[in-house]
Amino acid sequence: MTTRLLIVGFGNVGRGLARLLISRSQWLKTAEQLDCRVISITDLRYGTIVQPEGISLEPVLQHIEQGTPFSTQPQPTENLIRQLDYDVLIELTPTRLETGEPAHSYIRMALERGRHVITTNKGPVAHHLLELERLAREKGVHFRYEGTVLAGTPLINLIRNHLAGATIHKIEGIVNGTCNYILTRMAAGMDYTAALKDAQEKGYAEADPTADVEAWDAVAKVMILAQVAFGQKLPLHSISRQGISGLTVADIQQALREGHHWRLIATLQQQDGILEASVAPQKIPQDHPFASVTGATNAIAIYTDCLSRITITGPGAGPVETGFAVLNDLIHIHRKITRTPNGNHNPR
Ligand code: HSE
Predict the structure, then answer these.
(1) Between 255 and which of 147, 154, 260, 288 could a Cys-Cys bridge form, CB atoms 3.0 to 4.6 Å apart?
(2) Minimum-distance ligand 1 atom for the alpha carbon of 204
(3) Domain ranges of the chain
(4) What is the dihedral of CA 35, 118, 95, 230, to 10 degrees?
């Protein structure tokens, strides 16, 4: 079955996804009966391509490596979303955390048209997850966002599917790859500016890295987890927030001599029906499970009534690591729409 994709936003994650679609094209067809056809890509920097018969992704990636735009006539994204013939909108524009726009409107437009949507954009999910899931349900389509927290490490799937039936009372962990990478490099003596530049070059940082180092990105992820795990919407400014930009190499190395590691820790805790959330750097001891979490790796501990503590650790940022989340969401949507409830392929 051919699945037509419209990709909006073609930065690090879009390119990571494109590489995966190229390398797994044959496997997707044979193992999953999923034939992906990218019919349009649009990006503020590179312009727009529309090819209903399917875009060849290799030349597009080569084009971008050479810094050349796709076309000289960018088309308004709204028109593409409203008019093109596609099955899944893949929304990968940069996060704008204050409002979640314009991504929120793009996602709504596609869902209103009865199209499935996958996003890795934290803004619309942080502000509007419950509303967007309701709209998707009303329209009988799927809305997936695995890549918004812990990149392709399957945290959202874990909470949504595998912990169904357990009550979660606390979640804490490392949710920003860039900050963890910077803190790890600074512990080895690299200065803050060089470590940040390194994280940007590796494709971990946000388009505006202030979002990472001042902990806005971690706050967005806390807002998403509040909805996924606790069904509650927390306003952006209700979450206590402190970033890592005030930490120096001297602070970090002094802590190390005392047997401690600085980590940026996000916490969500429900007590007596009240959900409290914060993000702040913490000095943790050598034997703490998060002390060994280094580089762009993330880790989350989930405290539940039935299973006590569950911990998941894995990549928290990166083009292919986040592109994988989109690919995985795509496979899940495809399975849901083509397989019968007992898991067999639908013969249609
Ligand atoms: N800038 C984010 C991070 C990307 O470093 O964690 C993944 O959400």
Answers:
(1) 260
(2) 5
(3) 2-151+320-343, 165-316
(4) -150
Give me the architecture of the 165-316 domain, per CATH.
Answer: 2-Layer Sandwich (3.30)
Active-site residue, from 29, 139, 221, 283: 221
What's the pLDDT tens digit per position in 304-335? 999 999 999 999 999 999 999 999 999 999 99
CB-count exposure of residue 118 (10 Å: 0-12, 13-18, 19+): buried
- List the residue whose alpha carbon is closest to atom 4 of ligand 1: 317
The pTM of the full predicted model, rounded to 2 decimals, is: 0.96
What is the spatial order of strands in the sheet that 240-241 belongs to?
240-241, 274-285, 260-271, 168-174, 297-304, 309-315
Look up 233 and say whether it is catalytic.
no
> Does 2-151+320-343 carry CATH code 3.40.50.720?
yes
Pocket (CB within 6 angstroms of ligand 1): 151, 176-178, 204-206, 212, 217, 316-317
Q: Closest Cα to residue 68, out of 87, 47, 54, 38?
A: 47
* Minimum-distance ligand 1 atom for the alpha carbon of 322: 7
Please report the atom of ligand 1 found closest to the CA of residue 149.
Answer: 8
